[in-house]
């Protein structure tokens, strides 16, 4: 069954369509959520289920040609929202104490050269950069954490980006 047929079937036979959508797109949504919520299987399952519900709610407004993109975007946004709620309740740490996150930072996200430059930034600039770009915290959230205004956080991020653009040989 094509995506176009699935979207049409959401109104004529929603149970069948939702079963098919779940089989086809829940694994994709779970894979996306697992990148942001590693080891939190319950949260990952909820993101996948909420993604399927979002498809059902959008219904005929969805474009069959962009359904996969809708799933990816929705799952990513739901996982980020879930991660932020967990961070507020301090259920997920910024960094593990064993240094595993530092290795992840170097190998997977930033690359060794950029990670070295970020570590050389004066405190709390390096932490602000990581919290904003790696952990997706907003400037307002970071500002509350460090006693800065949102504008001050944005200004620091701007200066850090300018420094990195000039200094980092990528």
Structural account:
This protein is mainly alpha-helical and 170 residues long. The protein contains 9 helices and no strands. Helix 3 packs across helix 4 (67-88) and helix 5 (100-110) crosses helix 6 (112-120). The N and C termini lie far apart (45 Å).
The total strand number stands at 0
Shape: elongated
Q: Structural class of the secondary structure composition?
A: mainly alpha
Helix content bin: over 70%
Number of helices: 9
Q: Helix and strand succession?
A: HHHHHHHHH
Strand content: under 5%
Largest sheet: none
State the low-pLDDT regions, or none: 93-110
Let me know the average pLDDT: 80
Radius of gyration: 20 Å
The rounded distance between the terminal residues' Cα atoms is 45 Å
């Amino acid at each position: 069954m094509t995506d176009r047929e699935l979207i049409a079937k959401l109104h004529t036979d929603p149970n069948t369509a939702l079963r098919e959508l779940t089989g086809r797109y829940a694994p994709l949504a779970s894979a996306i959520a697992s990148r942001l919520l590693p080891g939190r299987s319950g949260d990952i399952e909820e993101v996948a289920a909420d993604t399927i519900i979002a498809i059902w709610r959008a219904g005929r407004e969805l474009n069959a040609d962009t359904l996969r993109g809708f799933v990816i975007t929705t799952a990513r946004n739901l996982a980020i929202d879930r991660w932020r709620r967990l961070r507020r309740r301090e259920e997920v740490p910024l960094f593990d104490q064993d240094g595993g996150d530092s290795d992840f930072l170097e190998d997977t996200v930033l690359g060794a050269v950029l990670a070295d430059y970020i570590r050389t930034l004066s405190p709390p600039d390096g932490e602000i950069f990581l919290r904003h770009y790696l952990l997706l915290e907003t400037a307002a959230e970071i500002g509350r954490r460090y006693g800065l205004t949102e504008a001050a956080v944005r200004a620091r991020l701007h200066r850090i980006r300018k420094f990195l653009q000039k200094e980092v040989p990528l």
